Amino acid sequence: MANLSREEFITAINPFLNDHDININDHPTKDLLIELTKTDFKGVEIFQSYLGQIYLDNDKDYKSALKWVNKAADKGYGYALYDLGRMYQEGLGVDKNYTLAFDNYLKAAKLDIADAQAQVAHLYSSGKGTEQDYKKAFNWLKLMVDDLDTGRP
């Protein structure tokens, strides 16, 4: 979801919108996502994560980003775990904490999120947030490349 345009996102959730009689033209993206997070939709963490990404990357509203990213990360959503790792690594709305960054990246990496796999490799190679281990760094990079070759995200 991280790189979807509004149109691609709407297309992806269109069946849900139709089932719940939600007219997308009545809502700007953020408002639509806020409405969707109030539903009992099984994949609500996708909406929470996407909303968090809007606050994080577009609005630079880190407090709101943290709220929504945490909600999705608590449900184990890989892209939210990656964003939470990024927030801790860069100190966006939270104190910089490489250990928490590494922990969240690792959870996302185990869910085949390629960007998280790259960050896990980077942190292993630098020894930030975890013990320095070049072999593990190499293995995570190799896994990332293998996943990309097979078409995983």
Give a structural overview.
With 153 residues, the protein is mainly alpha-helical. The chain has eight helices and no strands. It has helices at 6-19, 29-37, 44-59, 62-74, 78-90, 98-109, 114-126, 134-149. It is globular, with a radius of gyration of 17 Å. The protein starts with 5 loop residues before the first helix and ends with a helix.
Please count the beta strands (DSSP E, at least 2 residues each).
Answer: 0
In terms of DSSP E residues, the strand content is under 5%
| End-to-end separation | 10 Å
**What's the rounded overall pLDDT mean?**
86
Q: Rough shape?
A: globular
Oligomer: single chain
Helical content stands at 55-70%
* Largest sheet: number of strands, sense, barrel closure: none
Number of helices: 8
Structural class: mainly alpha
Rg measurement, Å: 17 Å
Low-confidence stretches: none
Element order: H for helix, E for strand = HHHHHHHH
Task: Give the structure's gist in a few sentences.
This protein is mostly helical. It is 69% helix and 0% strand.
